[in-house]
Design brief:
- The chain is mainly alpha-helical.
- 61% of the residues lie in helices and 0% in strands.
- It contains 6 helices and no strands.
- Helix 3 packs across helix 5.
- The longest helix has 63 residues.
- The protein is globular and about 55 Å long.
Length: 274
């Protein structure tokens, strides 16, 4: 068995030997291909991941990009980060584009858009505002003084009082305008026309240096010579005028509601405290 089995075993080994190098060669040949396939798969995965990152980045960026320059709108949220673009009077809303603070008393308050669309309309409205403010300042003083002194002056001059039956100043709501003599209205219109003419001539003479409301009337020389002083004086005038316009509105509403003079309704403002 030993001698008979040895040749068989040798034969079996000889048959198996040729197969071993072939199998190793085949495995060596297959290794590079497997390596190449795994490298290709990894490269493909990396490219896919890069594409996804780029696509997501572009998508996020496009969400914040403006559609077009012409389609932009200025809103309070868009301008909230810039304090210079917000109204000083109403800090939570954007200021009107024309109200940039160059005019005295400009705090960016124009909720109804009275300033207009261009600089010319803004200057026109400022001219109207300052003239109404001056009239209101005169009326804010004249209204209560008439209610306090009209009867005394009228009796002294032998005239009929111009106040209403309840002692109120004549107005559209209070009535009593029929008691005013026509000569008074003629005088008022003549004075207004005189100041309007002076204002027009001053505007033509000064040109671009014209200040809205300048009618050449300053008998006490209160208007300063320097630019800073002039701006401050104009700011004071327009602010006092705006308060006076509100005061006149208060007079009218108060007397219409309570049917008695403001001097009697609020005596602490018009009667001496002693």
């Amino acid at each position: 068995m030993t001698h008979g089995g040895a040749p068989l075993e040798l034969e079996r080994k000889e048959h198996e030997r040729p197969d071993t190098p072939m199998s190793s060669q085949n495995s060596e040949k297959q290794r590079p291909s497997n390596t190449n396939n795994s490298a290709d798969r990894n490269r493909s995965k990396n490219e896919d991941a890069t594409s996804l990152v780029v696509a997501s980045t572009v998508g996020c960026a496009s969400a914040f990009a403006p559609v077009s320059k012409s389609g932009r709108t200025s809103t309070g949220l868009n301008q909230a980060g810039n304090d210079n673009e917000m109204s000083k009077a109403l800090p939570f809303v954007p200021r009107p584009k024309l109200l940039d603070g160059t005019l005295p008393g400009d705090v960016g308050f124009d909720p109804f858009g009275f300033a207009g669309e261009d600089k010319a309309s803004l200057i026109y409205m400022r001219e109207a505002e300052i003239k109404h403010a001056r009239l209101a300042m005169l009326a804010a003083v004249g209204w209560p003084l008439a209610e306090l002194w009209d009867k005394k002056i009228a009796s002294l001059l032998g005239m009929q009082p111009a106040l209403t039956a309840t002692g109120e100043s004549p107005s559209l709501l209070n009535g009593g305008l029929d008691k005013i003599e026509p000569e008074y209205w003629v005088m008022v219109v003549a004075i207004a026309a005189l100041f309007e003419n002076e204002s027009k001539q001053t505007a033509e003479m000064k040109g671009k240096k014209y200040i809205p409301g300048d009618c050449g009337f300053d008998p006490l020389n209160l208007f300063p010579e320097d630019k800073a002083g002039q701006f401050e004086m104009q700011t004071k005038e327009i602010k006092h005028g705006r308060i006076a316009m509100m005061a006149i509105l208060g007079y009218v509403v108060q007397e219409a509601l309570y049917n008695q003079p403001v001097t009697a309704e609020t005596p602490m403002f018009f009667q001496p405290i002693f």
